[in-house]
Amino acid sequence: MKNFFAVFSIMISLSGLSQTGTFPQNWIGNWKGELKWFKTGVKEPQTVVMELRIQPADSLNKYTWHLIYGLPTEDSRPYTLIAKDTAKGHWIIDENNGIVLDQFWVADKFCGAFTVMNSTIISNYWVENDQLMIEFFSISAKPIITTGNGTENSPSVDSYKVGSYQKAILKRTE
Questions:
Q1: Per-residue pLDDT for 39 more than 80?
Q2: Nearest to residue 135, comparing CAs of 154, 111, 116, 155?
Q3: 37, 38, 58, 172: least CB-packed within 10 angstroms?
Q4: Structural domain tally of the chain?
Q5: Could you tell me if 162 and 138 are in contact, meaning their C-beta atoms sit under 8 angstroms apart?
Q6: pLDDT score, position 58
Q7: CA 164: distance to chain centroid?
Q8: What is the pTM of this model?
């Protein structure tokens, strides 16, 4: 049955249909490529092999969401993707350790934001030209400055340090 879903998802992807309404079915498969990690103030990015394996799980509206950085023995993160409310584009990624991340389908992108250890991470995933594009922004959770007068005409505005940006381009391997 898993092979059927993989073949079906490839056929949908090759047909050029919109991602809307077919997520995550048309993303099923194993994706692999390169992640570049750009840190603020550092000119050269760190580069690492990245994989994302998405397969149907044992029950309806559940999928594997297995992230691998480097070799599978180095950094393997076997998560579960679960539909929360597909009519509202709401999904969750269960890290299977007590951490659950809310994700949302917005403008043909799978998007989320969470804060951990004083950093807010914003993630975006989308398919473009039969490639899975991924980006992560890491932003300090504490403002570096607050400006404005706190009035209607000049509200208080918090500014945050962008600590890093990561971008991956993955291609389907199966």
A1: yes
A2: 111
A3: 58
A4: 1
A5: yes
A6: 85
A7: 15
A8: 0.84
